[in-house]
Amino acid sequence: MGASTIYNLPSWANGRTGDAATLATEANTPAAIKPVTLLVFLALALAAGADPAELDKLGEKWGGDYIKRAERTLEDGDLAGLNGLMTMAVGIAAETKAALQSVIDDLTLTAGQANWNDEDGDPPAEFTAEWVTATLTEAGYTWDGSAWVRA
Fold it and tell me: What are the pLDDT digits (tens) for 95-126?
């Protein structure tokens, strides 16, 4: 029997396939950021040590389109888009880049966190294979060696 897709489970596992280790690895993969406004992001960056003059350089260099794109990316929680914008942040001081990256790291959500349904309670600090197995077992599934099946 091939790997079966899991449905009607807690949000982090719904529609996924794979053994507990695979599901844990997927759940721990960075996938999104907590949505924030550009002003909040900039305030966090300044608090993390970014130089205001360096941040101004980004707006000056890339103009209104860069700012609009940054606003959409942050408000949509788009980690990949934000990382793409960071590649465009050339010519700014290493300290400011580090401050921006620390804010991104603090806002980053794993796939498990990003797909977590608040009705499921609090997500674990880390998705482990043991936690996945226990949770799926509690939800009525068992691993048959190749797929999660209803117990």
Answer: 999 999 999 999 999 999 998 888 878 889 99
Structure tokens at 9: 């489970």
At 103, is the secondary structure helix, strand, or coil?
helix
User: Which whole-number Å values give the CA distances from 20 to 12, 30, 70, 96, in the listed order?
Assistant: 13, 18, 36, 39
Cβ(41)–Cβ(81) under 8 Å?
no
List beta partners, residue 150: 141
Domains of the chain, by residue range, sit at 1-28+126-151, 32-109
Dump the DSSP string for 51-93: -HHHHHHHHHHHHHHHHHHHHHHHHHT-HHHHHHHHHT-TTS-
Determine the distance from the C-alpha atom of residue 7 to the mean position of all C-alpha atoms in its chain, rounded to a whole number. 22
Coil vs helix vs strand at 23: helix
Give the closest residue to 32 by CA, choosing from 89, 85, 75, 69: 75
Verdict on whether the full-model pTM lies above 0.85: no
Beta bridge partners of 103: none
Distance CA 148, CA 151 (A): 9
